[in-house]
């Protein structure tokens, strides 16, 4: 019960993450990259020490609002998933510094995560950069690559006083 890291990447798991995972109260790192799961049990959000959650290359379509229970979460990765719906409760993740996404429906939930320092978004469909992007005042690196950005770059990007790197490659900016 003192497991700190669980790496299940590249396994043939399927379905939903088992409820028993919540018994790993000291778990800090959970890597589920390329495991074939399609949903997360709400019990995954009862891991108080979790700092890193990797759900890359999964079939997950929706993140539960209970994600705001993960108060220690520093890094969340949802690369190469299907089009993911992010809950507004992301704003409750006050320790979240790194967010790596692919194929999100909207940026609005992200713009309320004030602690973010690094945001990377890659998407295959059109994405509008939220005019609220300037709310993420701690942001140091912003990478919105190959998203077929629709519309103009919002002027609020100029409000990101800590921004050191802005990458908008492979878009059709106006």
Provide an overview of this structure.
The protein has about 170 residues and is an all-beta fold. Helices cover about 0% and strands about 20% of the residues. It contains no helices and ten strands. It has strands at about 5, 15, 30, 35-40, 50-55, 75-80, 100, 120, 140-145, 165. It is globular, with a radius of gyration of 16 Å. The mean pLDDT is about 90.
Strand order of the largest sheet: 1-3-5-6-7-8-9-10
Number of strands: 10
Element string (H = helix, E = strand): EEEEEEEEEE
Mean pLDDT: 89
User: How would you classify the helix and strand content by structural class?
Assistant: mainly beta
- Report how far apart the termini are: 54 Å
Rough outline: globular
User: C-alpha Rg, in Å?
Assistant: 16 Å
The low-confidence parts are: none
Oligomer: single chain
The portion of residues forming beta strands comes to 15-25%
Total helices: the number is 0
Q: What keywords describe this structure?
A:
174 residues, 10 strands, mainly beta, 0% helix, two-stranded parallel ribbon, 21% strand, 8-stranded parallel beta sheet
